[in-house]
């Protein structure tokens, strides 16, 4: 049994070890429920651009990157700008640790 302790919450909240060593398959129904409850679906959709990029496109961009989980978590919690065009993504500090892990893992499955 592998237990991964999460460092204190910050924009670097998912270590590469946490996101790359322990990956679990997240089913679509669970992911979509979590995405909707955290208001991600207001700007993103699984396969098409809305205000922000499609989750599939985000997953493709980060596929195979060793620190992809950490990068995505930092963008979700801290926001980002100029990564996908002129519209910035505002910080989402309300996303709890469990939901953040589900969101990040599921996006990385979408390539």
Short summary:
By secondary structure, the protein is mostly helical. The protein is built from five helices and no strands.
Helicity, as a percent range: 40-55%
Shape: globular
Compute the number of helices. 5
Number of E strands: 0
The chain-level mean pLDDT equals 85
Reported for the largest beta sheet, the result is:
none
Q: Can you offer a commentary on this structure?
A:
The chain has 111 residues and is mainly α. It is built from five helices and no strands. Helix 2 (28-37) crosses helix 5. It starts with 15 loop residues before the first helix and ends with a helix. Residues 1-22 have low confidence and may be disordered.
Layout: helices, strands, pairs:
Blueprint: H1 16-20, H2 28-37, H3 55-62, H4 68-78, H5 97-108
Helix pairs in contact: 2-5, 4-5
Summarize this structure as a short list of keywords or feature phrases.
single chain, 111 residues, mainly alpha, 5 helices, 41% helix, 0% strand, globular, disordered N terminus
